[in-house]
Amino acid sequence: MGIAEKLNGLNGSVVTRQQLQAHVRIAKNQEQFHIAEKLQSILDAYPKKQSFEFEIVKPQIDVVPNSFLQCLDCEQTEEDFNGLAKAVSPNDIYQMITDKMIVMIKDAKSSDYKKKWKSKQYGKGYTIPFNFVSGKRYRGVNILLLTELDVLENPYFLTFKQVEELKGSVVKGAKGHPVVYFTQLFKVENSEKNIDFGTYDRKRANDYAAEVGVPVETIPILKYYNVFNGKDITGIDFDLENFKVGFIDKDFPADEEHRMQIPEAIVSNYPKPAPSLKFGGDRAFYSPSKDFIQMPFLSDFETVQDYYRTLLHEFSHSTGNPKRLKRDFSGTKGSKAYAFEELVAELGATFLSAEAGIIWHNNVNHASYLKGWNRVLTHIENDNRFIMKAATLSQKLTDYVLQFDEAGNPLYFNDLKKQDEVKAKTPVRSDEKKLRTIKPKSTVPAVEKKTGAKAETTVLPGANKISESHSNKTRIRKKKVIDPNQLALLGTKEKLNAPIFSEVSELPVKEITIVHPEIIEPEQILKPIHSSNKIQKIGSSNNQQSEFYTVSGEVGKFLQQVEKKPFGSVVMTMDGEQGAGKTTMLYQCMESFASVGNKCLFISGEEDPNSHLAKSKTEKYISEEAKANLDTVGEVSDVSELYSFIEPYDVIFIDSWQKLLRMVGNLRLDEDLRKKFHGKVFVIIFQQTTTGRTKGGAEVVFDGDIIIKMVKEASFELNYAYFDKNRYTLIPIETIRYNIAKAKCYNPEEKQTEIIDTENVKLSFEYQEK
Prior knowledge:
With 770 residues, this protein is an alpha/beta fold. It contains 23 helices and 28 strands.
């Protein structure tokens, strides 16, 4: 959920200072800096206040992060602005992108995968989607949405309106494809003059601003519309015979004769200084510390396309070097940062392969190719902006490698034109295809956000022999590389089609990094003594901001902060004697997590979810807002089913551990839950024996990050909870208590500060001190 939507859901809620600080961190991570600044202004204005009551005056708007703008087109809309009353919110769009990728990955598990295209020979089609009317190629995440990682019979897409304007028609039952873009909202706002005006019409905004004497603010808003592929459109001549940009024919054997001109030209035009390229061995990797790429020989690959896919993957990694685009290489294998860099490089290789006319899979390994993405599946499901962020950086590295000029032509076109001129003077063998010079409808790159002159473009319809000057001298070897270590995050055992990313923790020492237009001072990076990628220098990941769950109300005040870990999960345990109020507090925790948008699952082993008792507790403790984000299940057949239940949720509540073990059998809290899943929270009730011992063994409870004890007093009204352990406490745990019956948090040692009567600060939301 986006921070804007989270804040809008806090209307009437009491938010602790710690939660407000967590919201600031989330806002910065999501590049919603306008929200971060407003929240920080509250903290700065009242440094001694520990809680605030929010009154939402005006909904917050989720703007498109600046980093996303470079891979999205800007298109103005004629519709009027109606705040957040639109049917689709930005978060819905991020979720739509995420859901499509998840379906693609999970569908790949099916053994009966069938080709979606109709060409008789595999691999004949297009890899780059284009807008037929503008002639512009789609970029970034839109490539994934339109191609679904498959070849296209027709590279062109049009909106329904565009089809009608061109006197064509869409085939009945044709499926539309979403295209994400951003539009500019123009706001004229001044709280002192009671002015709050918004429109997508620039002229209208400027006229009104001049009238009231208030400047116009431009805000990018995320949108999407549907387009249809040319194969589902009749009545329009697409003239595909004369358009071969991103066209492929088939896979070619891996030998010197079939070296491909376009990828060779892309690599030879890589921005200087380029990483060195070494050959030999049975591993493919990029070394950030020494800035070189290691590749097996071309003859070790099954097809020449496999070779170039692998090469472009490693060149994609190399763009993240501090002397180039300076991406985060600090992640260790298995971490979110590592998975993110792998996904960026894999998508970068996909985009560059599409440019080179190389399909990134074939008919025997398409399913296994996507299965390799399962290792990022957890991160994708837990962060619906994960794909968008990765695709944006992948487009950025693609632009860096291709180096488009003002006319929209990549730099490597110059090499192809020279080779084409040489070929024109050389007699052509009857079995060799000619290069063709074609005119795309437009060659202006989307990054320039403008239309311009058309340019002559030299395009290769398939793979052709390259001149000796572009050939690497390699010895011919017949053995096939099948390396068990070649298990890249996005790869398979069968082929070197997704190379490993090794030495990610190493960075150059005392190296000046040049990022135009400024020079960054040298940075001293220390390396661990041991070479294992599991070991890193302490504090080396301090540049990664921690993320915390939003927990509302008094439970949030009591818990203070609950981390969303990049690796592993947080376990919170509750135990106490019978009648202490464990289940009651569990319901209160469910309300506090779910009401602010966290996806929650309640495994109710003690009470059937359909029982009168369970229903009455739900009505008593769970609000309608929380119900929308809270699911429940009463029976779990086995561990496999348990894992499938857990996967889609953020927070999992279990009542109780003993009942869960009876349903699924032996289960270890630390190894099978806490370390197996990433970024989740497990809230688990443990029963006590009559002697006060925890059932299942005390060591099980001690595996928790937050251990809550329940104290049973003479009256339920006096029962309370306290921390026996809390790794995230911001104050001494012995000073804080939680009254279960009153659902109230107390901190006896908290100094009472004077309540200041003041008018609400005029922000996009107003707040009251509590």
